[in-house]
């Protein structure tokens, strides 16, 4: 099938049908496409609202954008990359890697780009999913939501934000036409993107105000360029890169002990962070401002070697009083101080536990995911399927995220489960499969017990891991290899099924 053919809008009177419909082509959607192709399933399509693959790594092009997971771990297990230039890869390099995967594994022509899903519901009579897009309607026997958790920016509700007369944009929608050189810039937020952006723009801007709601824990960034001889060895010595990947993986799993198993063990990492803070910030007043008042790991742990030095610059101010309102050319903090500003960069994260994509998926009873989660709480079975949504999968669904290692490990675990389900569907001649409500309930009861003593609930913070009820509906509370073990095969006994007529 050619790219031209896949970009032809589906007719409203004759929806285009495919066996498996994948929504989104970031690392999750692309990986699913590759796996289906590898196991001989060719009847699938990938709908992508952007004009290229990549998802988060296509969209986040802000200055200093890079991954905080080591390069050799941040790749598909079936496509290790010996050419990483650094131990932690920059955005452009990761996006190049993802593009290369789409070409190498010959799935790009299964994509329909610039195709945004606008609605989707289960047709119980026909036993298919009906998905509406800006390019017409599609139907599918199976749908895979791979839209990602970091796809929809979270915009702050600040008085007067719409009256600002200068440039204002979210970090994930960086305005490259806006030159910040010589400008007074306000950065709202101090999360993962902010600590990369602030050091990148501070040398060129006239002045930078950083608005902090709560101080992050910042650990040393062990990033360095790879030597040519190292890349040569990764490429030509069998097993070397995979060995290094395994060692990095094992090291990262140790963080689970300090986050979920024995939170007091986080004291060691806190000590390292405090020493770093002392060495890099000499001003006692500033050091007090950047000292977190919660346990390390309660929020996302950050890594940087230049964030604290950037805050110590004479032309950078850290504001901790909160924002009262935004005016035409200024920001007024809660203490009444008004600061002039030419541009505002919103580093305010993403809609994770209230994703707008949940509002467009309707299940068997007509309710959207949002409506069901609001009524019953956010939950899924193995973070991958939800009762009332037959023949549907969600990658990186509730309680499948990680705070310490590569999400690609979780994504591949879920892809294994999905691929086995598709194969089982064909082998058993299934028309539908839907996880039983009692199975999902039992699974989440056990999950809650694991979560109860974790630092995410006892560490004294509020974070984007938590939903509006204060429950951690985002993270997997155990070792990631245990998650993979649970998803090794599709457990048909956990599902209600129907078969097709002979």
List the helices and strands and how they pair.
Layout lengths: L2 H4 L9 E8 L3 H12 L5 E4 L8 H4 L31 H14 L6 E2 L4 E7 L4 E6 L2 E10 L21 E4 L13 E5 L5 H8 L5 E5 L6 E2 L8 H9 L3 H14 L1 H7 L4 H15 L3 H6 L12 E2 L3 H5 L4 E4 L3 E4 L3 E4 L4 E3 L2 E4 L14 E2 L6 H8 L15 E3 L12 H21 L2 E6 L1 H15 L3 H4 L21 H7 L8 E5 L3
Parallel strand pairs: 1-2, 1-6, 2-3, 4-17, 6-18, 7-16, 8-9, 8-16, 9-12, 10-11
Antiparallel strand pairs: 4-5, 5-6, 13-14, 14-15, 19-20
Helix pairs in contact: 2-13, 13-16
CATH topology of the largest domain: the name is FAD/NAD(P)-binding domain
What fraction, in percent, of the residue positions are helical? 25-40%
Number of helices: 16
| Largest β sheet strand count, sense and barrel closure | 8 strands, mixed
Please, could you describe this protein's structure?
- With 502 residues, this protein is α/β, with parallel strands linked by helices.
- It has two domains: 293 residues, FAD/NAD(P)-binding domain (3-Layer(bba) Sandwich), CATH 3.50.50.60; 179 residues, FAD/NAD(P)-binding domain (3-Layer(bba) Sandwich).
- The protein is built from 16 helices and 20 strands.
- The strands form five sheets. Strands 1, 2, 3, 4, 5, 6, 17 and 18 form an eight-stranded mixed sheet that branches. The chain has a five-stranded parallel sheet with strand order 7-16-8-9-12, covered by helices on one side.
- α2 packs parallel to α13 and α13 runs parallel beside α16.
- The chain is globular and about 75 Å long.
- It starts with a helix and ends with a strand.
């Amino acid at each position: 099938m050619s790219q031209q053919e896949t970009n032809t809008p589906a007719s409203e009177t004759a929806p285009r049908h495919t066996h498996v419909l994948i929504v989104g082509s970031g690392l999750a959607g692309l990986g699913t496409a590759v796996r289906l192709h590898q196991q001989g399933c060719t009847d699938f399509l990938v709908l992508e609202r952007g004009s290229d693959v990549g998802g988060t790594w296509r969209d986040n092009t802000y200055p200093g954008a890079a991954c905080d997971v080591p390069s050799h771990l941040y790749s598909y297990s079936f496509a290790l990359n010996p050419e990483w230039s650094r131990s932690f890869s920059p955005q452009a390099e990761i996006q190049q890697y993802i593009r290369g995967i789409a070409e190498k594994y010959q799935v790009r022509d299964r994509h329909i780009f610039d195709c945004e899903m606008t609605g989707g519901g289960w047709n119980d009579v026909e036993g298919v999913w009906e998905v509406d897009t800006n390019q017409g309607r599609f139907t599918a026997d199976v749908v895979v939501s791979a839209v990602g958790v970091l796809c929809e920016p979270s915009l702050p509700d600040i008085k007067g934000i719409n009256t600002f007369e200068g440039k204002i944009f979210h970090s994930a929608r960086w305005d490259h036409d806006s030159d910040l050189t010589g400008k007074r810039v306000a950065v709202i937020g101090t999360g993962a993107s902010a600590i990369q952006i602030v050091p990148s723009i501070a040398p060129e801007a006239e002045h930078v105000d950083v608005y902090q709601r709560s101080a992050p824990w910042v650990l040393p960034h062990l990033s360095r360029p790879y030597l040519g001889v190292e890349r040569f060895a990764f490429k030509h010595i069998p097993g070397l890169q995979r060995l290094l990947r395994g060692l990095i993986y094992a090291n990262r799993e140790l963080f689970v002990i300090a986050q979920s198993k024995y939170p007091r063990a986080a004291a060691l990492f806190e000590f390292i962070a405090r020493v770093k803070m002392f060495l890099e910030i000499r001003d006692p007043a500033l050091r007090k401002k950047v000292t977190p008042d919660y346990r390390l790991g309660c929020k996302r742990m950050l890594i940087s070697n230049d964030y604290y030095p950037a805050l110590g610059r004479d032309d950078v101010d850290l504001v901790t009083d909160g924002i009262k309102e935004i005016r035409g050319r200024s920001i007024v903090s809660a203490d009444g101080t008004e600061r002039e500003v030419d541009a505002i960069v919103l580093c305010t994260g993403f809609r994770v536990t209230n994703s707008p994509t949940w509002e467009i998926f309707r299940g068997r009873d007509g309710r959207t995911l949002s409506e069901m989660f609001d009524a019953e709480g956010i939950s899924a079975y193995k973070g991958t399927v939800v009762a009332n949504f037959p023949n549907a999968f969600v990658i990186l669904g509730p309680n499948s995220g990680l705070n310490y290692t590569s999400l690609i490990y979780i994504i591949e675990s879920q892809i294994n489960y999905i691929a086995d389900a598709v194969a089982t569907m064909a082998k058993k001649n299934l028309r539908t499969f839907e996880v039983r409500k009692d199975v999902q309930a039992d699974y989440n009861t056990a999950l809650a017990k694991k979560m109860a003593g974790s630092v995410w609930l006892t560490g004294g913070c509020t974070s984007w891991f938590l939903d509006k009820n204060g429950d951690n509906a985002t993270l997997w509370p155990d070792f990631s290899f245990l998650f993979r073990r649970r998803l090794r095969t599709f457990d048909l006994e956990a599902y209600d099924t129907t078969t097709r007529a002979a």
